[in-house]
Structure formats: C-alpha cells, structure tokens
Design brief:
Mean pLDDT: 94
Distance between the termini: 89 Å
Strand order of the largest sheet: 3-9-8-7-6-4-5
Low-confidence stretches: none
Strand content: 5-15%
Helix content: 40-55%
Largest sheet: 7 strands, mixed
Structural class: alpha/beta
Radius of gyration: 25 Å
Order of helices and strands: HHEHEHHEHEHEHEHEEHEHHHHEEHEEH
Bound molecules: pyridoxal-5'-phosphate
Number of helices: 16
C-alpha cells in the first residue's frame, strides 16, 4: 500500500475513537446524567448541608496534580474525580441557600437546551449559516425589547454575559457620539458609587481609562440624584468638557436600588448624552406588576444590558444587549475592511433586511444561544418566571421583617427588589464594623448559608441577594436562624 494511504488508515483508526457509537454515547450520557441527578437530589436534602466549602491548599489540589496522558481514561472515573474534588468547592451556587452573588440557580431545562445546541454545534454568527437559529435569538431579543418598551428599530444579541453586553454598549455609545481616542481626556461619564465595577472595567478594556468619571451623589435610598446629575453635567459643559454618557442602574447588585430612570432620561435627553441602563440584575423584574413602574424610562435608554443568567435563572453565561437604534449597534461592529461608503450601503441593506449576529457583536464564531432561553420560557410559560421573581421580592421583604425583630439588627434602606443590606448595631461606632465583620466570617465558616458583605459609606454591612429560583420561605427562615445563632456567639465575645 501507498505510504500516504497507510498513514491515513492509521490516523483514521485513532481519530475514529473521538466518535463513540450510539450505544457508547448512551452510556456516556447516562454516566453524566446520573451525576446530575445525584447532585440535584442532594440539593433538596438536609439543612445542615454546607453551601460554602473552603478552598483546599493549592498543593493538595487533585486537579492540579492530575497529569494529562496520551491514553484515555474511562468517564466514570473522571466524573468521580470531578464530583469528589471539584464540584463541592467554594460556593454551591445552585443551592437554595446561596444568597451572596447575584445568581439565578441554573434552570435544568436551560442546561438541556445548551447541551442540545452543543451537540448540533451550529454557528449562529452569520445569517446564512443558521438563519432560523439567528431568528430564534432575534425573537428572544424582540421579546425582551417589548418588555422594556423599545420600538421596532432596536437591535440586540445574546452575549456570553453581562460584562460583554456592557462592552458592546460602551463601544456603540463611543462610536455613535463619534469620539476618538484624542477626545477621551475631555469626555465625562456619570455614574453612582453603586454602578457595577464591570462598567469601569469595560471602559478600561476599550482603552477609555482617561475618560473623566463623575461620581453622582445618591439620595438616602441609594438612587442616583437626577438633579445633582443635571448640575454636574451643566458644570462640566461650562468647563468646556464633553459630557458623554450616563450609566444608570435598574437594580444595583449591592443594594438592589433602581435609579429614577425617567428623570435621568429627561436630563440625558436635554443634554444630548448617551444613556446606558444596566439592568443585568434587575431588568427582568419588569415582569412583576407591583414593581413595573420602577422601570419606566427604560424605553428612553440608548442601550440596556440585561442577563438571563441572573433574572431568568439560566446557568451562567447568557447576557443580553439591546440598543434602541439598531443601526448604531451595526455601525459600531463593522469589520475593519469596510469603507465609509460601504458601511452606508450596508446600513441601508441592514435596515431593509436582517443583521447577521456577527454584525452586531464582537464575536465571530459563537454558539447558538437561543435554545437555552427559548426552551425554559416556552416549557414553563412566562407566568412562572414572573411569579418566581415576585416570590423573590416578597422573600426579601419577609427577610427584612424577620431580621429587624432579631435583637440588635438594623436595616437602613428597605428592599426594593430582592437584596437586603443589614447590620448588627453594637451602639458603638468603634466596634460596630468589627462586630459585623466577625459575624460575616463566622457565618462563612459555618457554611450553611452563603451571604456577602458590603461597605457602604464606611459602614460594614451584611447582604443577601435572593435570586435563586430554588430559594423559598423555608430557606429564609433557615438563614435567619443561622444568623441568630452566630450572632449570639459573636455577642458573647463582645460582652453584649
Ligand atoms: C452581574 C452584574 C454585572 C456583570 O455581569 P456578568 O454577567 O457578571 O459579566 C453587571 N451589573 C450588574 C448590576 C450585575 O448584577
């Protein structure tokens, strides 16, 4: 035989091992599925279960010390290794007692959608590659756009996460305002202290760290003060600076506060700036009738970032960007080879036809992201999501009610969405922060609930964010019990 043919035969034999046959596929799937079932059943068990597991010493990390080899290992052994050494390390975010991060819990049906699209491995970047896949995504974007009140001209896409959405928004704002690098030093961006750090990070990634950032004061409810915003913009204009963008929040991660969007939108409109609203945590609460009014004004934003992995409980990795004037998003994402005339004619085509997803995002090859969201929305119906979000708001209210009747505990700002910030008041400025820090450390050590801490105006506070779809009343009761138990111990140390 020809040496080339012989070589091919040899290589093919090895390559073929990458495609298990149907029977073997069933066995592989079964193995992973059995683990998933075990995990999910475990989640529903005993209250004493640890949600926070401290990291092991790096030197004893099994994964870091498991070398790669030329030969394969059976999946059962590998999944056992993963289960024993990887999956219960750090915070178990899928657990109902996970209340530290802004995290939805990871709907199983969504995971199945992601599994299925990964099996198909269709690339939805270009319309011609997967026209209906791209349209499925578009239908989800249109649905989200209708929730916030955007009209027909919008465009948007599902992204890898919230930060990606913010990067796309800032780049679109920059290009739409025709800003060049030499302008950055005179440009001004306005945000409050509670604007998520990913915004500043995104600006940095876009080489915009020279842009002046104004810290807009907040009122007592931790919301941006719209009249102070107006004053700052006017002063900056008088100074000859170039006010450029306002980053408002529809649900801050730290406090759950929603900025007065309508009033901010009026100021922005009057001064002709770009309004970005970060609705990554809070945006989908617009589905809840009782709080819908808080989101009025979103329809006036030039861009809105949202995330289905937060407010729609998807597994991590599904952000959303919506831009009111879709052509602006398109013009900001053209490839470097396009000339201005070309872009204009492309814009005209895009207006009459459809965008390819790669034309409205920085991504090229990308997964089909629609099914992971479409499937749960269709399987459960939108009502289930609205009810679950409403439940989260009531759980935060319930927690608030319960915590303030515990001796010594205080809440300065009542929860609006599903975040509650609280602290133990030692009645002594000298040891109050230390007491709360000790309490937080003790609760982390305890491990039955995961909570976080925030420092607001120099005050160390504890914080829970109720967003996991698995969290219900019994879990809030348990969280209160754990806080009470641990506070009793810390109080003894302080002689209180
Ligand atoms: C989570 C979050 C972000 C960042 O989004 P990622 O998906 O983590 O990249 C931005 N803003 C708010 C309000 C958030 O809650």
């Amino acid at each position: 035989m020809d040496t080339l043919e012989k070589k091919l035969e040899e290589l093919e034999e090895i390559s073929m091992t990458l495609e298990p046959d149907s029977e073997e596929r069933m066995r592989l799937t079964q193995c992973v599925n059995a683990k998933a079932e075990k995990f999910l059943k475990g989640l529903a068990e005993s209250e004493s279960k640890k949600v926070v597991v401290k990291a092991k010493d790096k030197s004893s990390s099994v994964v870091l010390n498991t070398p790669f080899s030329d030969d394969g290992t059976d999946i059962e052994e590998l999944m056992d290794l993963y289960e024993d050494n990887v999956q219960y390390s750090g915070i178990c975010q899928a657990h109902a007692m996970s209340m530290s991060l802004v995290h939805g819990g990871g709907l199983y049906v969504s995971a199945l959608g992601r599994y299925y699209t990964s099996v198909l491995d269709q690339c939805t970047g270009a319309l011609f590659n997967a026209p209906e896949g791209a349209r499925l995504e578009k239908s989800l974007i249109s649905w989200a756009a209708s929730l916030i009140g955007y009209q027909e001209e919008h465009a948007g896409t599902l992204t890898s996460g919230g930060t990606s959405s913010i990067i796309i928004a800032i780049a679109t704002a920059r290009d739409s305002m025709k800003l060049k690098a030499r302008d950055f030093e005179r440009c001004v961006v306005y945000m409050t202290e509670l604007c998520h750090f990913s915004f500043a990070k995104a600006m940095r990634l876009l080489s915009m760290h020279d842009v002046i950032v104004r810290d807009v004061p907040m009122n007592d409810n931790m919301e941006m003060d719209a009249s102070k915003l107006r004053d700052l913009i006017e002063k900056d204009k008088e100074r000859g600076l170039r006010p450029f963008l306002v980053a408002a929040s529809a649900g801050t991660a730290i406090h759950g506060s929603v900025d007065p969007l309508e009033r901010i939108a009026d100021v922005v409109e009057q001064h002709n700036l770009w309004l970005h609203i970060d609705a990554i945590y809070g945006g989908f609460f617009v589905l809840v009738d009782d709080v819908k009014h808080l989101f009025k004004g979103m329809e006036k934003a030039d861009s809105v970032s949202m995330a289905a992995h937060k407010g729609l409980f998807l597994p991590n990795g599904c952000g959303m960007i919506l831009v009111k004037d879709g052509l602006k998003l398109f013009r900001s994402n053209v490839t470097p080879s396009e000339t201005e005339t070309n872009i204009t004619s492309l814009s005209n085509t895009a207006k009459s036809e459809e965008f390819s997803l790669f034309q409205i995002s920085f991504e090229c090859t990308r997964p089909e992201r629609g099914l992971q969201l479409w499937l749960p929305l269709k399987v459960f119906g939108v009502k289930a999501f609205a009810a679950c979000l409403e439940e989260k708001i009531f759980l935060a209210k319930y927690f608030h009610q319960k915590i303030i009747v515990l001796e010594g505990f205080m809440v300065d700002v009542a929860p609006v969405l599903s975040v509650v910030v609280f602290y133990y008041d030692t009645k002594n400025d000298k040891n109050r922060n230390q007491f709360n820090e000790d309490l937080q450390n003790r609760i982390t050590e305890d491990g039955r609930v995961s909570m976080s801490s925030v420092s607001i105006k120099g005050k160390f506070c504890l914080r829970i964010c109720v967003l996991n779809f698995r969290t219900h009343r019994e879990h809030i009761d348990l969280a209160i019990k754990i806080i009470e138990e641990n506070a009793t111990h810390v109080r003894k140390n302080y002689g209180l």
